[in-house]
Amino acid sequence: MERNDLEKIRLEKIESMRAAGIEPYPTTADYTHRNQEAIQAFEAAEQIVGSEPLQATLVGRIRAMRPMGKIAFAHIEDGTARIQLFFRINDIGEALMSRLKEDYDLGDYIEASGHLFRTKTGEISLHVNSFRMLAKAVTPLPAAKDEEVDGKIVRHATLNDPEMRYRQRYADLAVNPEVREIFKIRTKTIRALQQFLDERDFIEVETPILQPIYGGAAARPFVTFHNQLKQELYLRISFELYLKRLIVGGFDRVYEIGRDFRNEGVSFKHNPEFTQIEFYMAYANYHSIMELTENMVAYVCDQVLGSRTLQFRGNTLDVTPPWRRMELRQGLIESTGIDINEHLTGESLEAAMKAKGYAFKPTSPRGKLIDSLIGDYLEPSLIQPTFLYDYPRDISPLAKSKPGDPTMTERFEGFMAGMELCNAFTELNDPLDQEQRFLEMGRDYESDDEERHPMDEDYLRAMSYGMPPMGGFGMGVDRLVMLLTNQQTIREVLLFPHLRKLEE
RNA sequence: GGGCGCGUAGCUCAAUGGUAGAGCAGUGGCCUUUUAAGCCAUUGGUUCAGGGUUCGAGCCCCUGCGCGCUCACCA
Predict the structure, then answer these.
(1) Which of A204, A294, A405, A406 is the most buried (most CB within 10 A)?
(2) What are A187-203's pLDDT values in tens digits?
(3) A243 torsion bin: left (phi>0), alpha (psi -120 to 50), beta (else)
């Protein structure tokens, strides 16, 4: 590994420590408090007049160092808080004082013992009487110094280049506290989703990621190969068909939170792998799922943000139920002037779009044209939480038809901030209709081979055993986290977003 | 995949086609309550890579690589 000059200096320090009989990477670390606990314990002890000084051993990473001759200050940081260390030659002696100056750098991990006190300026600090190296850092962290302003750590000249931040996320996290906050919110979000569903008797399950037949969405899959079985396998593009098999099996309410993989374009809202939540609920339909959805998102906001409003791209979004409900057909009439019910074939709709001067991909099926109208003219205007409902049958192969209208299905999508958030429907449970839909999909997408929905005989068999009426739901968790953290790109809410491989 | 933009010291950023700089970090020194500590001194560069134009290229041109934005794609 190539080392730059700064690293070489630190490597020399490691050698000199070892020469002096000091192990820069000891196997143990001791502490009496985590930093936050120490601060709280000190504040509590302070209230009691005449209490003994609070002894503590603390650990953490050195984030700032201010040697001043015969005294020195440092700030260390663990996973809970930042705290100041105070070193004085009177307490630690000349030898340790010079070791401190010689051996210790920003980024090193240190263990320090002493008593807690307040400095002249009132900052709670550890008055150190002994300390040792816990782990020497060879590479300097990509940040200058930090300071505390109103309780918040402000780090100066810190890692900023997005490419390096994503490629070296460890350094990004180590140096940018606000990035760590995003991922704490992400974890809380997932926990809140689980709590919400668990409280309603859903059970969380795990279904195959490697699948012999992919399905449940229209997307290109990643293909892989099992050597011993000599069998092609696909990374799942959705959980849908497996979760609904479980409903047939008698689990009335199931959900899964996990990774989907789609072999498609990468953008600010698309990563090749992304986290999805899907749930299925027997004896529910899309109306009850709508209610459940708005309550679930409101619950998550309560738990994660402590508020039902959130800021996103300069908009204040209010997720308080009930959300606006808008029939898709009506929404399109208002936003485009086209009534899709008057254009029941792709040709007719294409002509209408052409007449209005709307962009479209020629010879697309009707459903795809409608989809592009939504995406171009309706979706961007849906800022406050909105459900669009009743979607065309030909882009909803797993949704149940609307009674009395063979062209429509009981399906809705939820939108916020001009972005699609979730997709749900009354699930199709008629095995003969389902078989017909698979055949239609195969026909419609013949030209676009990779994206066509493959026939899944086993899924049809499961349905043939008898599938209860039910509602199902899917949501991109990453997009929800983007909304909750006001992040404009999915890469900011993925710990390790996909980046192109670098040539060595 | 198309279009536009970007790539300079460890980090953040400067530099009309004319000697590549600053702050922080680092190194040496002074400094016993500092907090982006301060003061003095100082090291550090294949300007993403490769070609070209030019007396001379970080800057202009071409190719490649990577990233960003955007379009296409995307239930």
Answers:
(1) A294
(2) 999 999 999 999 999 99
(3) alpha
Contact between A490 and A271 (Cβ < 8 Å): yes
- C-alpha A386/C-alpha A399 separation (Å) is 20
Q: How confident is the model at residue A142 (pLDDT cuts 50, 70, 90)?
A: confident
∠ CA(A169), CA(A172), CA(A176), 5° rounding? 145
Confidence band for A439, pLDDT divided at 50, 70 and 90: confident
Nearest-nucleotide field for A164 (CA, C1'): B67
Q: Output the distance from A420 CA to B71 C1' rounded to whole Å.
A: 19
Taking CA atoms, A15 is separated from A18, A23, A107, in Å, by 5, 10, 18
Cα separation, A392 vs A440, in Å, equals 14
Å: A171 CA to B51 C1': 36
At the second CATH level, the architecture of A179-323+384-493 is 2-Layer Sandwich (3.30)
pLDDT at A157 over 80: no
> Which residue approaches B43 most closely, CA to C1'?
A5
Residue indicated by tokens 């953290």: A485
Residue A7: Cβ-neighbour burial (10 angstroms; 0-12, 13-18, 19+):
middle
Cis peptide before A322, with omega less than 30 degrees from 0? yes
3-state secondary structure of A93: helix
Topology, domain A5-151? OB fold (Dihydrolipoamide Acetyltransferase, E2P) (2.40.50)
Q: Are A400 and A337 in contact (CB under 8 A)?
A: no
Q: Which residue has the tokens 């899944």?
A: A456
Cα–Cα distances in angstroms (integers) from residue A382 to residues A57, A88, A131, A352, in the given order: 54, 62, 58, 23
- What angle do the packed helices A89-103 and A5-19 form, to 10 degrees? 130
**Residues spanned by CATH 2.40.50.140 within chain A?**
5-151
Round to a whole number and report the distance in Å from the CA of A143 to the C1' of B7.
20
CATH 3.30.930.10 domain residues, chain A: 179-323+384-493
Structure-derived torsion over alpha carbons of residues A454, A420, A242, A443, reported in degrees to the nearest 10: -10
